[in-house]
Amino acid sequence: MRIRISSILLAAAALILWAQTAFAVTADELVQRAHDYLRGMTSVSVVDMTIHRPSWERSMTIKAWTRGVEDSIFKIIEPAKDKDNGTLKLGHEMWTYNPKINRVIKIPPSMMSQSWMGSDFSNNDLAKSDTILTDYTHKIIGQEEHEGKTVYVIESIPKPHAPVVWGKQVLKVREDDIYLSQEFFDEDMQPVKILEMLKISEMGGKLYPTVWKMHKTDVTDEYTVLDYKELHFDVDLSDDLFTVQALKRPLR
């Protein structure tokens, strides 16, 4: 009898371990696919950014180019006073350029979480950093529905000694690989801010979240909205586009 009970317990433990392992792999695949879906192999986009505060609001138009999951360059098109301000990200290195002083500044890793141009997006956020892929482990913790499709709620916990500022992130990914939200928690596991996809439209040859809103979880009248106006995937981009020299080159 003891042997039978032990065998049953061992089988149950093995089944639980197998299910947890399969679940984790599924979560990893979902996050990877959703990240790839956002960027494609390459992309070119034009986005309106609106920064809203209780006493003021300002907008700018940004043109962005991405390559893979690590490289991106984006420049301000409008307003004229900010035109050609830009940011370049290559792997885990990042530079900004200010044409008024004709100076390129390399951003240290410690400043990657700082606000970009006074918005609610950090340098990492705007560059669509791949740290969520490399520095976190993922687990599905629930399911919801959105427009008739299954939505997976994924808890992302930093790996030991990972160089990240968040205690965890909670992602919502639809079964067709579309991100619906990304919530950020501090080291005490308290929510700090959330990125929500407010509108999904046909753009770039596929369904895509075309309106994004980033805001603090405890503040309703401070937020930043990204509104995609143009989006093209798998564009042939030259290597010299992703260089410091290209960052300094004026837009035509």
Provide an overview of this structure:
The chain has 252 residues and is α+β, with helices and mostly antiparallel strands. It is 20% helix and 47% strand. The chain contains four helices and 13 strands. Strands 6-5-4-3-2-1-13-12-11-10-9-8-7 form a 13-stranded antiparallel sheet. The protein is globular and about 50 Å long. It starts with a helix and ends with a helix. The model is unreliable at 11-25 (pLDDT under 50).
Task: Set down the secondary structure blueprint.
Layout: H1 2-39, E1 42-53, E2 56-67, E3 71-78, E4 86-90, E5 93-98, E6 103-107, H2 123-126, H3 131-134, E7 136-146, E8 149-158, E9 168-174, E10 179-185, E11 191-203, E12 206-216, E13 223-233, H4 244-248
Antiparallel strand pairs: 1-2, 1-13, 2-3, 3-4, 4-5, 5-6, 7-8, 8-9, 9-10, 10-11, 11-12, 12-13
Structural class: alpha+beta
Number of strands: 13
Strand order in space, largest sheet? 6-5-4-3-2-1-13-12-11-10-9-8-7
Distance between the termini: 81 Å
Average pLDDT across residues?
88
Q: Any low-confidence stretches, pLDDT <50, length ≥5?
A: 11-25
Oligomer: single chain
Describe, in short, the structure shown.
The chain is globular and about 50 Å long. The protein is 20% helix and 47% strand. It is an alpha+beta fold and 252 residues long.
